[in-house]
Amino acid sequence: MKTVSLHLAGRKYTMQTSLSPESVSRMEKNINENLALLQMKHPSSDLIDILVFSLIEKWEQLVTLEKELEEQRLNKEKIRLKLRKLSSQIEEKLKELTASQ
Q1: Residue 83, Cβ neighbours under 10 Å: how many?
Q2: 91 CB contacts (<8 Å, ≥6 apart)?
Q3: For the segment 43-96, what is each residue's pLDDT rounded down to a tens digit?
Q4: pTM for the full model?
Q5: Which end of the chain is more exposed for a tag (fewer CB within 10 A), N or C?
Q6: In angstroms, rounded to a whole number, what is the distance separating the alpha carbons of residues 23 and 6?
Q7: CA–centroid distance for 53 within its chain
């Protein structure tokens, strides 16, 4: 872990991270762009409100990604079961074919 400084919404924040400098830079840029968009969308809102809106958006994205990940895990398990069944069927057919020779 290393200590990095971020400039977000006109303020400097120091944090510990294992992210690469490129990732930290991308994160800082993304957060600032997102906050600027939200400030344009909600011009009468103060910085705390904007940060809360941003937090809600990120939470929604996280929930969506978790749902997609779970669906992929379930699909992976279905495929694994189908492959096992096919493998068993192939083995049975091979036994039949070799036994009849």
Answers
A1: 10
A2: none
A3: 999 999 999 999 999 999 999 999 999 999 999 999 999 999 999 999 999 999
A4: 0.69
A5: C
A6: 12
A7: 19
